[in-house]
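FIELD: query
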Amino acid sequence: MIVSWDYFSQTYLGQGVSVEDFPRLNLRSQDLIDAYTRGQLSGFENFDASTQTYVKKAICAQIEYYNLYTTEVGFAEEDKGFTVGKVSVGGGFSDSQSKNYISPIAKSYLELAGLMGRQVGVRC
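FIELD: result
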């Protein structure tokens, strides 16, 4: 794993994640970040120090995001929408959009690292 509990809790100062949930969230987050960077994490050891730091921060941000916004890791809670009187507002995500949604903060770190090229699909 690229991110350890010590890095997450002591360096990144991550919050809200229990030590018991960390390994599961960490694995899912690293897998998602690797998918969004089209497998570039396999060369993590060859990245310069700055890029490695941004990748670690992206994984940590995704861990916190999954912890806050998912009921089952990998599947964000679907916004069902609401109705007030005659006004109805539809939900924000479809099932296909919610399954592997990346944290906006994680995306920003990956952009700073130069790992989010135009070829990578992102939800605007």
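FIELD: remark
The chain has a mean pLDDT of 82.
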